[in-house]
């Protein structure tokens, strides 16, 4: 996985990752589910459709030079 972008919304960290370094590939959005006291971050894939739609629009704005298809 290749991290394309990260953001923090409402105190929660999210990352946009792709399975290809360049060119066409599948993108995934992960949410940090770890506690602030944890030594390592634990990310889970976002599966809520409303949350996913919102985050895709946020990442599309952050990556204005990348074409994200929904």
Written account of the structure:
With 70 residues, the protein is an alpha+beta fold. The chain has one domain. The protein has one helix and four strands. The chain has a four-stranded antiparallel beta sheet with strand order 1-2-3-4, covered by helices on one side. The protein is globular, with a radius of gyration of 12 Å. The model has no long low-confidence stretch (mean pLDDT 87).
Gist of the model:
With 70 residues, the chain is of the alpha+beta class.
Structurally, the number of domains stands at 1
**Unreliable stretches covering 5 or more consecutive residues:** none
- Chain oligomer state: single chain
Name the strands of the widest sheet in spatial order. 1-2-3-4
Largest sheet: 4 strands, antiparallel
DSSP, total strands: 4
Discrete helix count: 1
Rg, rounded, reads: 12 Å
Globally, the shape reads globular
Helix content: 10-25%
Q: Could you state the order of secondary-structure elements as H and E?
A: EEEEH
| Fraction in beta strands | 25-35%
Q: Structural class given helices, strands, pairing?
A: alpha+beta
Integer average pLDDT: 87
Terminus-to-terminus distance: 19 Å
